Amino acid sequence: MRVAIIDTGTANLASMLAALRRVGANPTLTRDPAEVAAAERVVLPGVGAFGSGMAKLEECGLVAAIVDRVSAMRPMLAVCLGLQLMCRSSKESPLVRGIGILPIDVVRYPNEHDGARLTVPQLGWNEVVPRPDAELITAGYAYYANSFHLAAIPEGWTGAESVHGVPFVAAIERGPMLACQFHPELSGPWGHDLLRRWLERPTSC
């Protein structure tokens, strides 16, 4: 199966390519809006800052292609910063507008919770607890590397939560669309199984 990975120039491209190949996909990198529009499945990865991530998407003319895919319920996977870029804005880059697909703003973890200092960024494994109606996401442990997060699952989506001092959105899903705050490509067999389920999900649900 051919999968187009949006080349955001970020550090997790190699690991995403390798993980998709392990689960039987044929991934390619692209910055071409026409390829993103035409591809059967698309991945929006990301490691880095919200502002620079949006700047890269706008520079390549990719925002409209991403919006069109999600509006048409066509298969797409967003990972880490990729999930955050789909939101309206982020406290990380207050003057930068996000893609705006998700009517929610990205916030930072607090420095303290219940009187105890909270380690920020969150680096390492954490439990993922899906909602009962989640279909792609199952219970397990995923690898995170993030200082910012979504505080609530947006209306019209289902998903899963984790807790790092405070509850936060681990992942959201709607039909063939999946967006993860964690890195499935770095989350061992559990993460690879999630990638496989997304690849096998019918293109219309």
Strand content: 25-35%
CATH superfamily: Class I glutamine amidotransferase (GATase) domain
**Integer-rounded radius of gyration:** 16 Å
On the 0 to 100 scale, the average pLDDT is 95
- Poorly predicted runs are none
Task: Write a structural description.
With 205 residues, the chain is an alpha/beta fold. The chain has helices at residues 13-22, 33-38, 50-59, 63-71, 81-85, 188-200; strands at 2-6, 26-30, 41-44, 76-79, 87-90, 102-108, 112-113, 116-117, 122-130, 140-146, 148-149, 158-164, 166-174, 177-180. It has one domain: 3-Layer(aba) Sandwich (Rossmann fold). The strands form three sheets. It has a nine-stranded mixed sheet with strand order 2-1-3-4-14-13-12-9-10. Strands 5-6-11 form a three-stranded mixed sheet. The model has no long low-confidence stretch (mean pLDDT 95).
